[in-house]
Structures are given as C-alpha cells and as structure tokens.
UniProtKB/TrEMBL annotation:
InterPro entries: Galactose-bd-like_sf, NAD(P)-bd_dom, NAD(P)-bd_dom_sf, NADH-UbQ_OxRdtase-assoc_prot30
Entry superkingdom: Eukaryota
Domain NADH:ubiquinone oxidoreductase intermediate-associated protein: 264-407
Species name: Lactuca sativa
Positions of transmembrane segments: none
Name assigned to this protein: NAD(P)-binding domain-containing protein
Gene3D superfamilies: NAD(P)-binding Rossmann-like Domain (3.40.50.720)
Residue span(s) of domain NAD(P)-binding: 129-242, 451-550
Pfam entry (one): NAD_binding_10
Length: 606
C-alpha cells in the first residue's frame, strides 16, 4: 500500500509513523501531538457513526491497535466514500470490520524483509537431457563456472546418481506436454537442450551405453524407445510451447496495452492519498482513439493536491490471479505521451498489501510519445518510502501487480507523487491536473540479445533429401535416415520450430561425437556440408559459451575438430590446452544459413 499508518515497534504506541507512504514516511507523531486539540481536522478520523464498534474516540478494531488515528491536515474535507471504494476495489466486499482490519493489519505488519518472501531465483540455466553424453557435461561446465543450474530429466534416480543428490532437478518427458509444469521454469532465464531420441547398438549395450566409449567401431544402430517423430518433433513442440511462456521472446511480451491488433487489459484501480485522508484523485480509462496511431490507449489522469498532508495519486492493478513470470526479460518498456513530469512505476512480487514495492522513477518529455525502458536491475526495493537495504533481489518470475506509481509482478502501480523515497522530493511535482496516456507496457530483452535457447542438433540434418549427394561418403545417420525412423528429417523439423519460435536461439550441429577430451582446434562451418568428429566435452563448452554471446544468437552452424577419425586426440592432464575464446568462432557465423538453401534450389534441367 502506498500510504498508511504504522505503529512503531513500541507496543505502547507512543509514536507513529506513516507506512510506505512517500508523503508521510519521515513524519513522526508523538501520542500527545496526535491528540492535540490544535489539530483542527483529523488526517484520518473514524467517527462513531460509521463504525459501530468505536467508542468515545477509542476504536477497538483489533487486539493490536486501539487508538483513533489523527494527524494534521490542510483543512479540506475528506471523502470517506472514496476511501471505502478504494478499499473495496482492492480488497473485495465492504465489510467495515474487514476494511479496518486490513488497514490495521498493514499498520502492524512485520518489517519489510520479513514481509517480502519472494525467492531470488532469476537467471537459472535449465539443462534438458542432462543425463545424456553432452547434457551431463554441460551441467559440469555450468557448475564449474558457478552458474545456477536446474536439470530436466526423465529418470530422477539415474540423474541423482550421475549428477549428485544436490542437483536442482525436475522430472519431465518432453513427449508429454502435461509433464512440463510451469513451476519448472520459474527463475529460468536460459535453456540448453541436449535431449535426443535414443539410438543404440542393435546388438545391445550396457545401460550407460558403454559401447559409445569404445573408440572407432561401427555398431548397427536402432531407435530405442520413443520414435524420432515423438522426441525430435512433437517433443520440441512441447518444449518450445513451455519455453515461450517463460524464457522470453525476441519481440518482448505485451503486459498491458494495445499494439498492432493485439491487446491486453489489466484490472487497474485508483489508489490515491485518500487512503490516508488526502484529497488527490485519479482514474484510469481506455480512450478508444487516443494513441499516436489513432488506436486505443490507456489514460492515467487526475488532480493531485497536497491538502491534508497528501500529495500522490496512483493506479494499481489488482493482484494477478497467477503471478506474471517475466523472468526471461530484462525490464519493462512503457509507451507513454509525456507531460514533462516524473512518474514512478512500482512492481510487486508479493500478494500482501503492505510489502516491498520494487520502484523506479522515470521522466517524461512534454507532449511527446516516447518509449521508456526501465531495467529490472534498476528497480529499487522501497518499503514505506524508504530503501530496504537488505531486501531480497527482485524476482521477475513472481509479478503479482503493477502500480502506476507502477509496480507488482503480483501487481503493477503507476504513480504521480510529490515524494520520491528516502526523504527526497519529486522535482517536477506541481499540484493540479495531470494526464499520462500509456498505450503499452511491454517486457523487453535488452540489447545486445544473447541466446535464450541453445540446442544440440546434428550435422547432416538437411542431407538425406539433398539432390546429387553421394550417400556412400556420408555418416551413418544420413545413410540410414529411413531405417532410423527419419531421424534427421525430424531433427530438422525440430530445428525449424526453434528458428520460427521467436526465442533467441543457437543451434549447434556437431559432427560425430566422441568421448575424447576438449582442446583440439575446431572448424565451424555453415550450410551442413562437413563431416568429422568432435568431443562431447567440447560441444558442452561451446553450448555454455553461446549462452552469453550475441554473435551466436540466431545462428545455426556445424562444428568438428581438425583431428581426423584415424587419430585419437589426447591431452596432457598436467598441461591441458587453454580454454578457447569461442567468440572468435561465433563472430564468423552468418544469419539465415541452415543448409536448407540446397533443398530449396531447383535442379537445372539439361
Ligand atoms: N552420436 C553422435 O555421433 C552424434 C553426432 C551428431 C549429433 N549428435 C546429437 O547430439 C545430441 C546429444 O547427443 P548425446 O550423445 O548427448 O545424446 P544421448 O546421450 O543419447 O542423450 C539423450 C538425452 O535425452 C534424454 N531424453 C531422451 N528422450 C527424452 C524425453 N522424451 N524427455 C526428456 N529427455 C529425454 C535422455 O534421457 P535418458 O537418460 O532418460 O534416456 C538423455 O539424457 C543428440 O541430439 C544427438 O543426436 C550425436
């Protein structure tokens, strides 16, 4: 709540301070001052007629709060009806006891750090297929770098045995959409997908696929378990559907507003200084043709006054039924028509009324439509108008509401206020009418964009159908594509889903995978032409490096090492080669090359 009273920690209520209310935050009132006869109008006074349980200026609302609240004012009538309406909008049907209990509960709420319980889990990297040959090495590389990892696996016991009992683990099967629960993606910002249809030797193998570690010998392969279509295509569809809602889209996510045929409205309500006895008043409405393009826009407008010690207006969304997960994004972009004033956006990640609001001020330019980017990293945890030094980090996966003075992922608030925080004043504040058209609020991914999904595919995916190819010179998977349930065809279809998804991606297509160590010189190529081998450990390192490289974003490439099949690559454990700067390779990559260009080329008739 922007503004309300709180008893101090002194249980005798010998002094009071205002809660979270910028205007009053630093004001302290002694008991004697509060009840001074010199104060002609009460700031917040509940009279006997409206509350049946009040008696002789003493009100017995709860066991913890028993005094009438008074404060000084600039002598203007207070609109009790609007006060009740405000509480009704945010708290439901107006039971007087409920209203005052909710108010009083906020007076006596715990400290900010106790009140705020959201988890700080942003930035987790989810590894799908973490029990596979590449996947488990990806986990290893991430852990060595100290990065937060979660794994998505089919078999918990197998995963714990392989990765240790302390691994952050979720159980799911990508072929079954219902097993990919939204909770799995909370706090996840990036994903490495090393899931693959299982191919094993026809003659059998040990459960840990020992034959793949025996060096260069050809085993007649067959599909084990789910078909390539199920894993590589249907499974990819399911995974992408789950990720789209969670890891972020290149074009961002509309949180509120109207854009190119799409729209999203939020349950905004006014939350003005009336809740503390002030007389400022605001509203939020949709103007059908008020946007810069003549389309609809939201309009935050009102009249702000410092009478009765007030000085702020805001609009706040009701708490969202399901917390808005914006973990995949870096901030919120507001499209507003400025009026030269400074406003605030507050985002809340708790359902409680009186909690930390992650707050940021923004300046507007008079009479100009402008896009204002507010980075999550610059949100300041504010509680009762003061910065909370030890607040939990902002968790963009848990937005409950917005307030304009804007804030919550459980709610948002947009605000125009005389007060900033920590005792500072808004330099642009003037009393009187104001208007802020807001046509959209969009979550955005900051530039330079880096991949959100790194996928381990396979060299050769475009070759089975490629005209004029000498199959005898191709790897087994290309030659045996049909026998293996069209494995490469479905891998390509899965890749296409990624490229079309709008999720910033990298597709790494290794040549034949080996159990050799990383370290050999590499060849990166595009167009799906090369053959050769590469170490699984090296592929894992490439995947992790791609996560942070803008050069790797939206690229598809093949990779192998320079060492021929006939030669075993080894390293001296005492003197291992230095880790590569993979950006050098990523920088050579081009957009839009997949090898499908060859399939689309029509043969020249002779
Ligand atoms: N082998 C090669 O020479 C070669 C060459 C080029 C490219 N590639 C490609 O490189 C990639 C990685 O290879 P790899 O050797 O690491 O593969 P892998 O060892 O076979 O690992 C596959 C992983 O996917 C998981 N998985 C399979 N189906 C799943 C499902 N429905 N839901 C969730 N997880 C599932 C497996 O889990 P379980 O442990 O539960 O089975 C396993 O963790 C694959 O796409 C492969 O096709 C391989």
């Amino acid at each position: 709540m922007e503004c309300c009273y709180s008893p101090t920690t002194n249980p005798s209520f010998s002094s009071f301070k205002f809660l979270d209310c910028e205007s009053f935050s630093s004001t302290r009132f002694s008991r004697s001052r509060l009840s001074s006869p010199r104060l002609s109008n009460p700031f917040l006074k509940v009279n006997d007629r409206i509350n049946p349980i009040s008696h002789q200026h003493k009100i017995y609302y709860s066991r913890t709060y028993k005094k009438t609240i008074y404060a000084e004012s600039r002598n203007q009538g207070w609109d009790f009806g609007r006060f009740v309406k405000t509480l009704y909008f945010f708290n439901g049907p107006p039971s007087p006891i409920k209203i005052f209990e909710s108010l009083i509960a906020s007076f006596s709420s715990p400290s900010a750090s106790e009140a705020e319980k959201s988890m700080d889990a942003s930035g987790i990297i989810l590894v799908a297929g973490a029990t596979g040959g590449v996947g488990r090495r990806v986990v290893d590389v991430l852990r060595k770098k100290g990065l937060p990892v979660r794994v998505l696996v089919r078999n918990k016991e197998k995963a714990e045995k392989m990765l240790g009992p302390d691994i952050d683990l979720v159980v799911g099967d990508i072929t079954k959409a219902s097993t990919l629960l939204p909770d799995y993606f909370k706090g996840v910002k990036k994903v490495i997908n090393a899931v693959s249809v299982i191919v094993g030797p026809k003659e059998g193998d040990t459960p840990d696929r020992a034959k793949y570690s025996q060096g260069i010998k050809f085993f007649e392969p067959e599909i084990k378990g789910d078909s390539p279509e199920m894993v590589e295509y249907i499974g990819m569809q399911n995974l992408i559907k789950a990720l789209k809602d969670n890891v972020g889209l290149r074009s961002g996510k509309l949180v509120f507003g109207f854009e190119d045929g799409s729209s999203r409205v939020l349950p905004w309500g006014a939350l003005d200084d009336v809740v503390m006895g002030g007389v400022s008043e605001s509203s939020f409405l949709i103007v059908p043709n008020g946007s810069e393009t003549g389309g609809p826009t939201g309009l935050f407008k009102g009249i702000v006054s410092t009478a009765n010690n007030g000085g702020f207006t805001s609009i706040r969304t009701k708490n969202f039924d399901v917390a808005e997960n914006l973990c995949g994004y870096d901030g919120l972009e507001l499209r507003v028509k400025g009026d030269g004033r400074r406003y605030k956006l507050i985002v809340r990640t708790s359902r409680d009324w009186d909690t930390v609001g992650y707050t940021i001020g923004f300046d507007t330019v008079k009479d100009q439509w402008q896009s204002i980017r507010l980075a999550f990293s610059s949100l300041r945890p504010i509680f009762r108008a003061k910065t909370v030094v030890d607040a939990l980090a902002f968790d963009p996966s848990q937005i409950i509401s917005l307030q304009a003075c804007f804030p919550n992922f459980s709610s948002f608030i947009l605000m125009f206020s005389k007060f900033e925080y920590d005792g500072k004043l808004n330099p642009t504040f003037v009393e009187g009418p104001f208007e802020l058209p807001v046509s959209s609020i969009r979550a955005y991914i900051a530039d330079p964009i880096t991949p959100r999904l790194v996928h381990v595919g396979s060299a050769g995916v475009t070759r089975p159908e490629r005209p004029g190819l000498d199959l005898s010179k191709q790897p087994p998977a290309v030659r045996l594509n049909k026998e293996l349930g069209s494995i490469l065809t479905f891998k390509l279809k899965g890749e296409d889903l990624i490229r079309e998804s709008g999720i910033p991606y990298t597709i790494v297509r290794p040549c034949a995978l080996t159990e050799e160590p990383a370290g050999a010189d590499l060849i990166f190529d595009q167009g799906d032409n090369i053959t050769g081998k590469i170490s699984r450990e090296e592929v894992a390192r490439i995947c992790v490096a791609a996560l942070e490289s803008p050069y790797a974003c939206d690229k598809t490439f093949e990779v192998k090492c320079v060492v021929p099949f006939s030669e075993q690559y080894t390293v001296d454990p005492e003197n291992p080669p230095p880790e590569k700067d993979y950006d050098v390779y990523f920088q050579s990559l081009k957009d839009g090359i997949t090898g499908k260009e060859m399939l689309e080329r029509t043969p020249v008739s002779v």
